[in-house]
Amino acid sequence: MQEVCEFLKKCGTYYLATAEGDQPRVRPFGTANIFDGKLYIQTGKTKEVSKQIQKNPKVEICGMAEGKWIRVAGELVRDDRIEAKQSMLDAHPSLKNMYSAEDDNTEVLYFKNATATISSFTEAPRTITF
After folding, report:
1. C-alpha Rg value of the chain to the nearest Å
2. Which helix (H) or strand (E) holds 34?
3. What is the Cα–Cα distance from 107 to 101, expressed in whole angstroms?
4. Average confidence (pLDDT) over 98-105
5. Cα–Cα–Cα angle for 9, 76, 48, nearest 5°?
6. Start-end of H helices in 1-81
7. 86: three-class secondary structure by DSSP
8. Bridge partners of 110?
9. Which residue in 11, 3, 5, 110 sits closest to 69, CA to CA?
10. Which H helix or E strand runs over 44?
């Protein structure tokens, strides 16, 4: 899981896919953090992406760095603990301009039943489950 988190950080921007009914939705993200032994991402509860995740928690991430790409598929689970939110904000200080661990908008979500695949054109794909 640590390798997956580090890869997402190298990407800088990765893309999160959700579903809205039968329509896929993809948007750029940039947060990744390990807290309490789980891989977390962050968004705002007022955003459409949050509403889509709450309706259907199955998502997929795709990002590319250093000639390799990663796909992470799994389910996202909301964690409303202040400690989880604060850990994300501490790992990504630029978020503190928009979010607070105590506000009602900050949403951190962790992956469960996740599979990450790291691929390239020169190596066989590697799979990491967590």
Report:
1. 14
2. strand 33-35
3. 9
4. 96
5. 90
6. 2-11, 48-55
7. helix
8. 40, 77
9. 11
10. strand 38-44
pLDDT in tens, 13-57: 999 999 999 999 999 999 999 999 999 999 999 999 999 999 999
Report the alpha-carbon angle 25-88-51, nearest 5: 30
pLDDT at 116: 98
Contact 51, 32 (CB under 8 A): no
**24 forms bridges with which residues in the sheet?**
19
The total of other beta-carbon atoms located within 10 Å of residue 49's CB is 19
Cβ atoms < 10 Å from Cβ of 47: 13
Upper half-sphere CA count for residue 74 (Cβ side, 13 Å): 21
Stated as kind and residue range, the H or E segment containing 110 is: strand 106-120
The runs of H, that is alpha helices, within the chain are 2-11, 48-55, 82-91
Length of the chain: 130
